[in-house]
Amino acid sequence: MKNSFFFGLLFFVGFSALAQIRGVVKDSIDGKPVPYVTISVENENFGTTSEENGEFKIHVSDKSKKLVFSALGFERKTVSISDVSEVRLKPTALQLDEVVISKRFETQKKEIGEPENAILETFDKAPRIDIKFFPYDPSYKKTRYLKQVVLVTDSKINDATFKIHFYSVDANGYPGEELLEKDFIVAVDKGVSKTKFNVSKFNLIMPKTGLFVGFEKLLIDKNSVEKMVMNYNTNEALPVTTYYPFMLYNNVKRNFQFVFIGGKWIRKSNPDQNNPADKIRIYEPAITIILTN
């Protein structure tokens, strides 16, 4: 298994050059704090998460940058770093379609997305939102409802909290609209575990265009563990913070990979101009879903 030791040490070496920015995120209507907001530095693969009380802190090297704030149930907002001491997010005006609840039998189930090989690796991986694509197959017609989502994680603490996302596929094949109205916050206990989360209450149906399922690590205090690491350049012991849980990944070949950077999805493919269609090796999160009728 890999770990984040080297990354954490490099991060700390440049840490002294960064300025700490603090702020709080609130609902623009009632003024209540908004927890677990995804906060990204615009156009950079770096960010943080607001705490349960809406407060956040982030270290940046360039105060001219902007931060992107996003949370389900609120409009996305981009704010200059100089103006983030209090950020007000506007709740989205939901226009709900009429929901037709079909009778479920749950006499059949199908698990899809099993890892292609038995070798899984875990490490503190960027970006903080990792997704896996589940293509549609006509055989799912008989088991079209999402019953459970299954994730394999590794944690050094109990009650390690994170988000699970469900994205539709847009016209360009990118992760599109989120299929839930509110954040789906879950937790796992200490150790390496394969955990099933029931999603029946969301009445999700496997889209015929396929489905992206995502894991988002929350960079909050309750998920953090700090340890002292020796900096051999200065011969000093320095604190390095690690956030749990870690996701387990399967090393696979794919045509492309989607990476969440600066509040938006970026598609990465083979940079070889002579063979752009060749598949690339990526680390795909160990996520499966269970369908039922």
Automatic annotation (TrEMBL):
Q: What is this protein called?
A: CarboxypepD_reg-like domain-containing protein
Q: Which SUPFAM superfamilies match?
A: Carboxypeptidase regulatory domain-like
Q: Does the keyword Transmembrane helix apply?
A: no
Please provide the record's keywords in A-Z order: Signal
Superkingdom of the source species? Bacteria
> Signal peptide span per the entry?
1-19
